[in-house]
Write a structure and sequence with these properties.
By secondary structure, this protein is an alpha/beta fold. The chain contains 10 helices and 14 strands. β1 (5-9), α1 and β2 form a beta-alpha-beta unit. It binds adenosine-5-diphosphoribose.
């Protein structure tokens, strides 16, 4: 049986980390693509040279031509410009929209059957534009945001409660960014909802609100610390989990930016919702009942994503 082929469109900080993780997990052969001459080749060679030490067996290749991604099973897109301190994800919109147009054409031409995971920000708008530019099936183009946002939430909660990250689950909805909606009643420690933990005195409502706000600002916190770029270890790990669920048909339940056609009352937009990822791509979107406060927060989040899509349409009328 042929090995899986995973194409990484963008070989910067996240792209390089993805290649390394995919190698260590032996998920498939890797093609790193980038417009920068030498970067994908250098990273591919460097990681390949670590494979005898770490004992993993995958082929890694760097390329500056889209033909190298031909027949890829999975494409993970990080091409574009990351945030600098003081920049919001939205500031990136215009630059990265043009990048999505090129990437969409490249993937549609050489890897039309791939499962495409977009990471480029502003995420919910870029994945929407990428699907439209590429014309690929909506269940095969998905955005990585919720796995990262919920992982940050889980980590902060585990630190707060002094329990293992393994026993904390978290549930987030909505757009990636300041309007994301962490759902306390569906986030748990070993199955005990956060709302019960408040009643049990583990945490006050105010402290929980602070943790939720830190989660919303999680990306900006890293940008502020790094000063020269944005997060890459946790974003890469999150996308790898999604790729693995697709390639191994694991049917994991993962929060992703998925195309909505009426679910949650949203149409023609990508918004973060719980999904099932298996061999067919996004196989299911799980719709839960929201209470009025959650619905209000979700609506606000959807509104902000809609604003970004509208801004994209103004720049690229072909998206209308
Ligand atoms: N085609 C292919 N690659 C491109 C293009 C393009 N048109 N434009 C830029 N790139 C490449 C750059 O050369 C660079 O190597 O994309 C890579 C981006 O890497 P980094 O600048 O290191 O950014 P990274 O930290 O990996 O983040 C990538 O993910 O989380 C988001 O906000 C983040 O949008 C950013 C993206």
């Amino acid at each position: 049986m042929a090995r899986n082929k995973i194409a990484l469109i963008g070989s910067g900080m996240i792209g390089g980390t993805l290649a390394h993780l995919i190698g260590l997990k032996e998920l498939g052969d890797v093609v790193l693509f980038d417009i920068a001459d030498g970067t994908p080749q250098g990273k591919a060679l460097d990681i390949a040279e670590s494979s005898p030490v770490d004992g993993f067996d995958v082929r890694l290749k760097g390329a500056n031509d889209y033909s190298a991604i031909e027949g890829a099973d999975v494409c993970i897109v990080t091409a574009g410009v990351p945030r600098k301190p003081g920049m919001s994800r939205d500031d990136l919109l215009e630059i990265n929209l043009k990048v999505m147009e090129q990437v969409g054409a490249g993937i549609a031409k050489y890897a039309p059957d791939a499962f495409v995971i977009c990471i480029t920000n502003p995420l919910d708008a870029m994945v929407w534009a990428l699907q439209k530019f590429s014309g690929m099936p909506k269940n095969k183009v998905v955005g990585m945001a919720g796995v990262l946002d919920s992982s940050r939430f889980r980590y902060f909660l585990a630190e707060e409660f002094k329990v293992s990250v393994e026993d904390v689950t978290a549930f987030v909805l909505g757009g990636h960014g300041d309007t994301m909606v962490p759902l306390a009643r569906y986030s748990t420690v070993a199955g005990i909802p956060l709302t019960d933990l408040v009643d049990m005195g583990w945490v006050t409502k105010d402290r929980l609100e602070e943790i939720i706000q830190r989660t919303r600002d999680g990306g900006a916190e890293i940008v502020g610390l790094l000063k020269t770029g944005s997060a890459y270890y946790a974003p890469a790990a999150s996308a790898v989990v999604m790729a693995e669920s697709y390639l191994k048909d694991k049917k994991r339940v993962l929060p992703c930016a998925a195309y909505l056609s009426g679910q949650y009352g949203v149409n023609d937009m990508y918004v973060g919702v719980p999904t099932v990822i298996g061999a067919e791509g996004i196989e299911r979107i799980i719709e839960i009942e929201l209470n009025s406060a959650e619905q209000k927060a979700f609506d606000k989040s959807v509104e902000s994503v809609a604003g970004l899509c509208e801004a994209c349409r103004k720049i690229a009328p072909s998206l209308a």
